[in-house]
Amino acid sequence: MPDKVSYQQFASEVKAKYPQYKDKDDLQLTNAIINKYPYYKDKVVFEPNTIEDASSAVENSFKGYSMDGSNQFQWNAKAIAELPIEQQHKMLEQLSSAGGMNDTQKFATQNYSKLLQKE
What we know:
A two-stranded parallel sheet has the order 1-2. Helix 1 (7-17) crosses helix 2, helix 3 (51-61) packs antiparallel against helix 6 (103-118) and helix 5 (85-98) packs antiparallel against helix 6. The model has no long low-confidence stretch (mean pLDDT 80). It has helices at 7-17, 26-36, 51-61, 77-81, 85-98, 103-118, and strands at residues 5-6, 44-45. The protein is mostly helical.
């Protein structure tokens, strides 16, 4: 494992090694492991540094997600990154207000929103 990895990558590596956790939310799994094994705290990065990384985290957290129970929601990070900041922020607000998000999805959208506000 590199010196520091995103919590999504950390959870992915844990799930690859321990398949019984494959359905566990990435953020919850990472936090549970860090709580039990504090050694990993300095090995995991929770907040992205760039808008591109934040948008990719949103995209990854929503893979296979269905907003209305029938249509799969898709977030195309590359296409969305080309939109004006105001439009990206509006899309995040709409997404957040839809509800039904898991902890990883909430965390990803909040981090993305924070970075957009800095722009």
